[in-house]
Amino acid sequence: MIKLHDLHFKPFISEKEIDTAVQKMADAIAADLGDEVPVFVGIFNGSFMLVSDFVKKYPKPCEVTFIKLASYEGVKSTEDIQRLIGLTQDLTGRTVVILEDIIDSGNTLEEVHRIFENENVKQLLIATLFYKPEAYNKDFKLHYVGMEIPNKFIVGYGLDYDGLGRDLPDVYQLKTTQHMTNLVLFGPPGAGKGTQANFLKEKYDLIHISTGDVFRFNIKNETALGMLAKSYMDKGELVPDQVTIDMLNKEVEKNTGANGFIFDGFPRTNAQAKALDELMDSKDSQINAMVALEVDDEVLVKRLLERGQTSGRADDADERIIRNRIKEYYNKTAILKDYYAEQEKYFGVDGVGSIEEITVRLSKVIDKL
Predict the structure, then answer these.
(1) Among 68, 128, 143, 300, who pairs with 100 as Cys (CB 3.0-4.6 Å)?
(2) pLDDT tens digits for 56-83?
(3) From the CB of residue 215, how many other CB atoms can be counted at a distance below 10 Å?
C-alpha cells in the first residue's frame, strides 16, 4: 500500500506484467509495419516511461517525437484538453503511431485526431498500454491495446495523482475505502475480550462483528444463511467456512460507510483467515491487525472460576473444562499468530491489569496502524 498526498493506493499491475504487455505491443506493430520506418509520438507527461521502454523493445528502425497535452485534474479526466507542446516536424506521407499510456474517456484522443487531421500522414495508428472500455465514449479506433482495465483511477509507470507517482515501476489502484481500520480481536477465555471490544468500538467508531452473535441472529430470524447453517449444526457437522463468510459479508454490506470492523470469533484457521482477506479485498479494504490479549493461564483460570459463581455457566465452574478451553484457544491462535506475523500484522497486548489500563495498551497499538 502507498500514500500519495491524501489518498491511498493498492498494488494493481506489476512491473513484469507491464513489461510483457509493452513487448507484445512492440512485436505486433513491428509485424504489421514490416520494413517501414514509423514515427512514434508520445503524449507527455504520462507516456514518457512507455515510450522509453517501447522503443528499446521495437526491433526495427523508428523515429520518436512528443506532443504535450493536459487533460487531468486530480483523479478525474476533464473535457478541457490543452495543447502545450505541438508537432515540430513534417510528417507528410509518414506512418504515425500514437503511444498513449492510458485511454479512458477518449477526450485526449479526440484532440490527437484534431492535431493530425491536416498533417497529411500516410496513416495514424493508436496504441495504448492501458484501456478502460467502460469509460471510453468516442468512436475512434484503437489499433493496439496492451491491457484492458476497470474504470478505476491508477498511478505509476508515468501516471500520476497531482504530480506524484509517475516514477513508480508498478501500477497502483486507488483505494475507495481510504481510512478503514479492520481488526481481528483475539483473547483466551477470561481475557476480557468482550469488554475491550465494546470500549474499542465506541472509541474508534468501529462495527463489532461477533461471529456467535451473527450466527444466533441468522438462526433466530430464519434467514436463508441461518437455516443453512442450522442444517449442518443439527447433523452435528461443522458449518462450512463459506457459509460463515457469506454471513460476515452481509454484515459488512450493512455497514459500507463504517470506519472499520472488529472481527470477534473469526477467523479460527488459516483457510478462514485467507477467506477473510479475500472478503476485505473485494471491499477494497484489508485486515490491518490481529490484536491478541495475552494473559497467564493461572490468572485466566482464577478469573473464570470467579465468574462462574455469578454467570451460571457450567463451563465457568469446572476447572478441567476451563483449562481445556484455554488449551484449545492456544492451539488455534498459534496458527493464526504465524499467519498474521508473516504479514507483520500480529500484536500481542498484555491483558493483565485494570480495564482502563488494558484499553490504553490496545489503543497504543491501534493508533499506530
Answers:
(1) 128
(2) 999 999 999 998 876 544 444 444 545 5
(3) 20
Residues sharing a CB contact under 8 Å with residue 320, sequence separation 6 or more, in sequence order? none
Residue 150 CA to its chain's centroid (Å):
14
Give residue-wise pLDDT tens across range 141-170. Answer: 999 999 999 998 999 999 999 999 999 999
DSSP 161-224: BTTBSTT-SSEEEE-SS-S-EEEEEE--TTS-HHHHHHHHHHHHT-EEEEHHHHHHHHHHTT-H
**Hey, what's the cell of 87?**
508537432
Judge if the upstream peptide bond of residue 267 is cis by omega within 30 degrees of 0: yes
Q: How far apart are CA 314 and CA 327, in angstroms?
A: 18
Beta strands 171-174 and 7-13: pairing type? Answer: antiparallel
CB 121 within 8 A of CB 96: yes
pLDDT of residue 274 exceeding 50, the answer is: yes
List residues bridging with 40 in a β-sheet.
64, 97
Exposed e or buried b for every residue in 48-84, given b needs 16+ CB within 10 A?
A: bbbbebbeeebeeebeeebbebebbeeeebeeebeee
The distance in angstroms from the start CA to the end CA of the chain is: 13
SS3 135: coil
CA distances from 311 to 212, 317, 321 (A): 18, 9, 15
Q: What is residue 46's three-state secondary structure?
A: coil
Q: Any residues with CB less than 8 A from the CB of 318 and at least 6 apart, and which?
A: none
User: Angle CA(75)–CA(47)–CA(144) in degrees, nearest 5?
Assistant: 100
Q: What are phi and psi of 104, to 5 degrees?
A: -115, -85
In terms of Cβ atoms closer than 10 Å to its own Cβ (0-12, 13-18, 19+), residue 25 is buried
All three cell numbers of 13, joined, read 499491475
